[in-house]
Amino acid sequence: MSAKFERKRGKDSPAISTASLPDIIFILLFFFMVATVMRDSDALVTTHVPKATELTKIEKKSMVSTINIGPPVNMHRAKYGTAPRVQLNDKFAAPTDVIEFVENERLKKDERLRPYMTFALKVDKKTKMGIVTDVKQELRKAKALKIQYNAAVRTETLN
Amino acid sequence: MKTKRRSGGEFNASSMADIAFLLLIFFLMVTTIDTDKGIMRKLPPWPDPTQPPPESHIKKRDIFEIRVNARDQLLVEGEYTTIGELKEKTKEFILNNGKNPKLSISPDKAVVSIKNDRGTSYNIYLQVQNELTAAYNEIRENEAMRKHGMTMEDLPKSVQKEINSKYPMKISEAEPENIGGK
Predict the structure, then answer these.
(1) Which one of A46, B123, B130, B142 is at 20 to 30 Å from B94 when CA atoms are compared?
(2) How high is the ipTM of this complex?
(3) Is B19–A22 a contact, with Cβ atoms under 8 angstroms apart?
């Protein structure tokens, strides 16, 4: 009897079971798979969008094309400076390139769905309105009238 | 026949976590949490240069004038206003129904006019847009509650349309000035 106890005490404590660890990681993984979308293009400009309360979600995500406006990311500062710039697809562009961008985006979509296209303006909150207005005027010229000002959810009240 | 139950050897699952971690890190790298929410707007069509500009018959009292300068200061109907007061002022203007001779005659005639500077920050511009949307949304919500005892969301589409057309959101944006410089 006593020998039995003796033997147990002498051995190392049993290894901690890590069997549930993969489960935890998988839960995290699934969360990220559901909550995120694939990055379609590298961000060349930083866009910290302003916060707002009256937001609507776009139902047809495939009908959205995004135009980014903001200061270039650190990597491109040396070359392009810190003044806000327009990013279309994967490259820097001038506001006048917006018309061509709109046409290209239109061609990608089915003809019947083209009227439902929305152009989302993802603009950094510190950007001045000048460049934003230029882009908006180009959108008007390109007959892309449905736009969305991208914003994050705000919960606190204004002063 | 009795089956012999043998305790199977425990297999080592410690590498499973590593695999899951690899997958997790992969997803962290290639995906973004997207903000696909925002304020929807419809831009006015680009004017046809061959056509003369349409004459406007809007009376001065039906225009709610908002000006934002390059220092992000708001001038609403000639008065200095903070962004927090904008919503109430807008609601007062829309729901005036001819009482105050300076404000709108009826909600469907009311037009909100925004003029900003090229130096106005995008943040304040969006806040103005947000407050205007909030004002209209609140008015429509109140109307839905008062008349039908339901929130806008619960009402059928046709009734929603009716309320929306009773309080149409008309926002006109003037070409921005460039007084404040860069």
Answers:
(1) B123
(2) 0.78
(3) yes
Which residues, 6+ apart, have CB-to-CB distance to A137 below 8 Å?
A95, B46
Which residues of A are less than 8 Å from B30 in CB distance? Answer: 38-39
Tell me which residue in A18, A36, A127 faces B122 most closely, judged by beta carbons: A127
What chain B residue is nearest to A139 in terms of C-alpha separation? B43
The two tokens of residue A66 are: 């995004």
Between chains, do A123 and B33 touch, taking CB under 8 Å as contact?
A: no
pTM for this model (two decimals): 0.80
- Strand-pair partners of A148: A120, B40
- DSSP string computed for chain A: -HHHHHHHHHSPPPPPP-TTHHHHHHHHHHHHHHH-EE--S--SB---PPEESS-EE-S-GGGEEEEEEEPBPHHHHHHH-SS-EEEETTEEE-GGGHHHHHHHHHHHS-GGGGGG-EEEEEE-TT-BHHHHHHHHHHHHHTT--EEEEE-EE--SPP-
CA distance B100 to chain A (A): 27
Would you give per-residue pLDDT tens digits along chain A (159 residues)?
555 555 555 567 777 777 788 888 889 888 888 877 777 777 888 888 999 998 988 777 788 888 999 999 988 888 888 899 999 988 899 999 999 999 999 999 888 888 889 999 999 999 999 999 999 999 999 999 999 999 988 887 766
